[in-house]
Write a structure and sequence with these properties.
The chain is built from 5 helices and no strands. The chain is mostly helical. The chain has one domain. Keywords: Membrane, Transmembrane, Transmembrane helix.
């Protein structure tokens, strides 16, 4: 029972991590110091996609599922949980590259807004 709950918790943490990778820059808009945590997370998330690797949380979840008497899965977290919702076909390296580029693009746009806001605020402060 504990192993299954732990595996489910790992899934929730994994999902929250992915959401933070993709949209954490929105939190940085409100709390700029979060960038020190978010930027390395973006690098990790995009890097995992670019090299075609899997996040260490996937083997952890699988080990917990096996300990609970359940079957794990051979593919990665995205393939197992998210891609069936988004893509009908299996995850390919090309799709992973696209996901990595998507992560970088979304965050480049958000951080671009942050830079533009800071410049605007500096100009306003210098003009006072």
């Amino acid at each position: 029972m504990f192993a299954r709950l732990a595996a489910d918790l790992v899934v929730l943490i994994h999902f929250a991590f992915i959401v933070f990778v993709i949209a954490g820059g929105l939190l940085v808009l409100r709390h700029p110091r979060v960038a020190w945590l978010h930027l390395p997370v973006v690098a990790w998330g995009a890097g995992i996609e670019f090299v075609g690797g899997i996040c260490p949380l996937t083997p952890l979840e699988n080990a917990l599922r096996r300990a609970a008497g359940e079957a794990g899965y051979a593919e990665g977290f995205l393939e197992h949980y998210l891609l069936p919702l988004i893509y009908p076909a299996a995850l390919t390296y090309e799709v992973q590259i696209g996901l990595g580029l998507f992560v970088l693009l979304v965050n480049a746009l958000i951080y671009g807004i942050i830079v533009l806001r800071r410049r605007r605020d500096l100009r306003r402060g210098a003009g006072d």
